[in-house]
Amino acid sequence: MNINQHIQSFMLLYRYDYFFHYLLINNKNLRLFLCRYISQDNSIVYTTIENGETYHSSYDGKKLIMDIVVKDNKGRYYNFEMQNNPIEEEDQIRFMRYGERLVDIQEKKGKQLQNIKPVYQLILYTGREIEGLKRYRHDIRKADEQENRSFKGDRVKTIILQIEKMKEEYEMERELGVMEQLNYLFYYNEVHRFSEMNEIVREVVKMHEEFIESEDFIRAYEIERERSLIAAKMQRAKDEGMNQGISQGKHEEKIVNAKKLIQIFYNVEETQWIEKCKDEQLDKIYNIINQVDYEEFKKLM
């Protein structure tokens, strides 16, 4: 299978992240269900999309495709993400920083700290088990470990659903709830045959057919080819860095390779600041340069 065939086969999956973006942008019923699910508030009436509604062709914009920000009629923010690649430590840091950023937005809009509303995150994860997390559903909160008490100042409420774990906790030959039917569809690429198809699941199936025939699919294909090219450049730069700098332990070579990476991924010429980085900082560049925008990258470095 060549690279174009590989891209196309992945794009046909229900768990394809661009399709998930397409779903949430265009399906208000799904948005409403997911917001009610993670907030446990069935009185929500409607939701709106807060971030851009178009795909971004630049590398800097690709995270907007994966991360969806929604606001409900009560002014609360929701962040949704379909994560297919392994969730590592840097991804977990990104989740936390993204949630706190939505808290920060409220403060910048003039809300008093005690009036800041909760921020909800839902991460649908199709990869291998996250280290230390053994269950299907994990509710992530700041808490006192000794007393097992929640920290009242925590405004970010995160749910991670490890979909591959679903079979361990649910009887697969019985009726599943709506959330589990959706996750089964995303993970196995087919409807759950022991469940009566919920209307929301039916809408997702219909929209998947529409997506494949849409201009959004063509645009996503072009972005996927760009993403593959970037990944190839990343690997080549990493290999060259390993061979020329890291393996030989030459600080100067690491700086040169770091500057090349920054120019490739961010198209930035002003890179003198990287010369102040120590070896241990330079060594982690490959883990974060493809995860965040340039300003965030500089902070993490």
What does this protein structure show overall?
The protein is of the alpha/beta class. Helix content is 50%, strand content 13%. The chain contains 13 helices and eight strands. The strands form two sheets. Strands 1-2-3-4-8-5 form a six-stranded mixed β-sheet. α5 links the parallel β3 and β4. α1 packs across α9 and α9 runs antiparallel to α10. It starts with a helix and ends with a helix. About 5% of the residues have low confidence.
Instruction: Give me the side-by-side strand order of the main sheet.
Output: 1-2-3-4-8-5
Output the number of helix runs.
13
SS strand fraction: 5-15%
Q: Could you list the spans in which at least 5 consecutive residues all have pLDDT below 50?
A: 52-66
**What is the percent of helical residues?**
40-55%
Counting DSSP E segments of at least 2 residues, the number of strands comes to 8
